[in-house]
Write a structure and sequence with these properties.
The complex is a heterodimer. By secondary structure, chain A is mainly β. Helices cover 0% and strands 46% of the residues of chain A. Chain A has no helices and 9 strands. In chain A, strands 1, 3, 4, 7, 8 and 9 form a 6-stranded mixed beta sheet that branches. In chain A, a hairpin with a 2-residue loop joins strand 5 and strand 6. Chain B contains no helices and 11 strands. The chains are: A mainly beta, B mainly beta.
């Protein structure tokens, strides 16, 4: 099955930029979505279709996807951005239907 | 604004059954693709099941044959019927709207299912 690999943790100082990667074979051919999950809360969609933002999500959150790596970038990091982040893709074929989540990355704001 | 509220989570013995509910407001369940996603304690997210607008259903291999997704249009509510529960089914279960069958844009707060003797 399709595996999405993320770094377990990323640490960043306030005001700096956090970069979270999501690696998989030819992930650039798929639409990648990103979720933020704060402690004890439900996930929130922060980026969809590689680089689009739902309404209400700050412009500080941006995404890209090319080749074997998708990336979520958080600019001007704030304390409130501390959370787990998951990438996600959808795969479908005649024999198979599945939503795949990445392994998750914990962002710590120093 | 769209809102989802899950209920029905409980402590159940291995081999037991449970029905989860997800009440929607701000949109109609029958006109949207809807999913269940779960998260075991301290673990990542795992998709469980999807219900199409036409009634077609899809399941993760880990629950196929044991879980059934359904909806009640009159109550605007999504359900997950879980049978033959196993300890590895222990998780917080979220319902989520699934536009274009690709992503999850609105999530409920989750309901905890614990399978243990």
């Amino acid at each position: 099955s399709y595996v999405l690999t993320q770094p377990p943790s990323v640490s960043v100082a306030p005001g700096q930029t956090a970069t979270i990667t999501c690696g998989a074979n030819n992930i650039g051919d798929k639409n990648v979505h990103w979720y933020q999950q704060k402690a004890g809360q439900a996930p929130v969609l922060v980026v969809y279709d590689d680089s689009d933002r739902p309404s209400g999500i700050p412009e500080r959150f941006s995404g890209s996807n090319f080749g074997n790596t998708a990336t979520l970038t958080i600019s001007r990091v704030e304390a409130g951005d501390e959370a787990d982040y998951y990438c996600q893709v959808w795969e479908s074929s005649r024999e198979h239907f599945n939503y795949v989540f990445g392994t998750g990355t914990t962002v710590t704001v120093l | 604004e769209a809102q989802l509220v899950e209920s029905g989570g409980d402590l159940v013995q291995p081999g037991g059954s449970l029905r989860l509910s997800c009440a929607a407001s701000g949109f109609t369940v029958r006109s949207n693709y809807m999913s269940w996603v779960r998260q075991a304690p301290g673990k990542g997210l795992e998709w469980v099941s999807l219900l199409y607008t036409d009634g077609s259903t899809y399941y993760a291999d880990s629950v196929k044959g044991r879980f059934t997704i359904s909806r009640d249009n009159s109550k605007n509510t999504l359900y997950l019927h879980m049978n033959s529960l196993r300890p590895e089914d222990t998780a917080v279960y979220y319902c989520a709207r699934t536009p274009f069958t690709s992503r999850f844009d609105y999530w409920g707060q989750g309901t905890l299912v614990t399978v243990s003797s």
